[in-house]
Design brief:
four-stranded antiparallel beta sheet, alpha+beta, Dna Ligase, domain 1, 24% strand, Glycoprotein, Type 4 Pilin, 186 residues
Length: 186
């Protein structure tokens, strides 16, 4: 596995460059990515403006190089997060970028909701839940605003389009951790 921590500044530079290209509509020449960024990894790119979420898009499972995943997710966070209008050129100076590199997903075996809640590690675990065609994820950073496991899971169920008090023995859950790298908030 690649030493991601050593490349944090490079990942932020890649995301920032892709953000600028996406918003300006221009493409800059890029060198071949270094070997350390060619490993397939899953990432999320989060954009904030004055401390408020402005876009967040990512992948949960590796399907392209770390370099390509960060570039594509930065573009998508700027232009295709359906919760927000596309980022405008006039916002670029106020946008801060955060890159999260995900560990592999690990399924959480649980008998019921109480057991799932007891297994979660607040501040550490990202969580994916799925029931039938509904699926949602929270990065570990969401614990900062939802520090209690029950509230965290209830909000995630709502995000998936399920009722806060919904439970089914068929609900599946996976956890992951992240290495995150961020710019100072604009």
């Amino acid at each position: 596995m690649t030493d991601v921590a050593a490349g944090g500044a490079a990942l932020l530079a890649i995301a920032r460059s892709a953000l600028i290209e996406a918003v300006s509509g221009t493409r800059t020449e890029t060198a071949e990515p270094p070997e350390s960024l060619r490993e397939e990894r899953a990432t999320f790119v989060t954009l904030t403006r004055h401390g408020e979420l402005r876009g967040c898009i990512g992948t949960l499972e590796p399907r392209r190089s770390l370099y390509d995943d960060v570039r594509e997710n930065a573009r998508a966070a700027a232009l295709r997060d359906t919760r927000f209008a596309p980022v405008g050129a006039d916002e670029l100076d106020d946008i801060s970028v955060e890159v999260s590199v995900l560990s592999p997903l690990r399924e959480i075996e649980h008998r019921d909701e109480d057991e799932l809640l007891a297994i979660l590690r607040p501040g550490v675990d990202g969580l994916v839940i799925a029931h039938e065609a509904r699926r949602a994820t929270f990065l570990p950073q969401v614990w900062e605003s939802l520090p209690h496991p029950r509230a965290f899971v209830q909000a995630l169920k709502t995000k998936a389009g399920l009722a806060r008090d919904f439970w089914s023995d068929d609900l599946r859950a996976w956890r992951f951790t992240v290495e995150k790298f961020g710019e100072e908030d604009g």
